[in-house]
Amino acid sequence: MFKKSLTLAVAASTLVIAAPALAQEVKIGFLADVTGPIAGFAPGMVDAGNLAIANVNDQGGILDGQTLTSVLADSACDGGAAGPAADRLVNAENVTAIFGGYCSGATIAGANGSAIPGNVVMISPASTAPAVAELDDNDLVFRDVVPDSIQGVKAAELLLAQGVTEVGMTYVNNDYGSGLAGAFEEAFVAGGGTVLANVAHEDGKADYRPEIGQIEAAGATTLVIYGYENAGGGAILNQAVEAGSFDLFMGGDGMAGEALLASRNAADLEGMILTQAAPAEGPAFDALSALTEAAGQDVNGTYVTNSYDAVFLLALAIEKNGSAEREGLSAALREIANAPGETILPGEWAKAKELIAAGTDINYEGASGAIEFDDVGDVAGAINYFVVEGGAVVNKGLIE
Questions:
Q1: Does 179 lie in the same domain as 112?
Q2: Tens digits of per-residue pLDDT, 273-311?
Q3: Do 108 and 202 have their domain in common?
Q4: pTM for this structure?
Q5: Average of per-residue pLDDT values in the chain
Q6: CA-to-CA distance for 273 and 157, rounded, in angstroms?
Q7: How many CA atoms lie within 13 A of 57 on its CB side?
Q8: What start and end residues bound the annotated signal peptide (predicted)?
Q9: What is d(CA 144, CA 129) in angstroms, rounded to the nearest whole number?
């Protein structure tokens, strides 16, 4: 029995909404956090998923020439909203597979409530919480994003290597925040560091001075924030800067993105460190970069590469499975994602379709990195770090 548990962003102006079920359509559900704390990431992610669908349809369609379509359901980065949203996709829209969720808690709720009982494969591009890997999911829940068990460890190693041995922490009180904070704290302490305070916070508050004061009172001059930039994490950052409480800030992927400096004085954040999964370098990334540029999209947007890869993988798996039925799809997904096989790059749908028809094994090479699903549906990967320098967020490359 495969075990996995989950934790885990869009004015979907370009979203293709599926019409009532027609024989010539194959549906992929988009369980997307269009509203909620990571809504700022969602437009780029949804657009990337729909770009993958457009690439399929522009090169002959799926299976016997059917049109691949997307059906959007807002999971709002909330388990309470994700449950009904996933139920609609699985039981009313009768989707073949699901792209999403984004937030870990939404992914877990959607999986447990509808996807797993309905035998529907899910690929999350953003649910990084360790709990995702613990779901009892019958090999149905996958993710093509590096889990927090890697990001947290690498972030801790980076601070220690820079001579930071004491930190205060705050994390959003959900699967994502607690999982990432736990991985960081364990690695930081194991490496000789001290966590002076580790305080949970709830999104949606106006005043975070009590949490900030508790951490500051413990003597911390470095604050690690594992939350969301346009929710509690961003508010804590703003209020801490206003109070002059800390000398250095660090944030995870939930704090990354263009919005970080959009409404803040960059000089106040000089030296702030951010960590995020690193995209691949080489032919796969270059191929997607060309596709996104032609479509007016930004390949460097948060989780854009992961989102394109997830939807293209699902399309390849459906083609490999030979039908729009749900049965057998997870096995087909592993076949097209994992080596060996002839390499397929982003956008190479016609090539893949021809090889599959000929009975030739294929191996999709993701723009987000190597996609080799392990026993729990996870992928390995590397972590980049970024530093706010001179008014910009500068990519410093891999954390070695």
A1: no
A2: 999 988 778 999 999 999 999 999 999 898 999 999 999
A3: no
A4: 0.87
A5: 93
A6: 13
A7: 17
A8: 1-23
A9: 13
What is the domain-level CATH number for residue 31? 3.40.50.2300
Q: What are phi and psi of 174, to 5 degrees?
A: -150, -175
The amino acid occupying position 396 is: K
Does residue 9 sit in the same domain as residue 141? Answer: yes
- Write out pLDDT tens, residues 4-61: 333 333 333 333 334 334 448 999 999 999 999 889 899 999 999 999 999 999 999 9
Residue ending a domain, among 237, 271, 305, is 271
Buried/exposed 88-106: b ≥16 CB within 10 Å, e otherwise: bbbeebbbbbbbbbbbbbb
| Structural domain of 238 | 148-271
CA distance linking residue 254 with residue 179, whole number of Å? 13
> Which pLDDT value is given to residue 226?
98
Is 355 inside any structural domain?
no
In angstroms, the CA 243 to CA 392 distance is 23
Provide the domain count of the chain.
Answer: 2
Q: Are residues 159 and 140 in the same domain?
A: no
CB 32 within 8 A of CB 9: yes
Q: pLDDT band for position 313 (50/70/90)?
A: very high
In a domain, 62, yes or no: yes
From 271, 294, 329, the end of a domain falls on 271
- The per-residue pLDDT for 105 is 95
358 phi/psi in degrees, rounded to 5: -85, 0
DSSP states of 190-205 = HTT-EEEEEEEE-TT-
User: Does residue 334 fall inside a structural domain?
Assistant: no
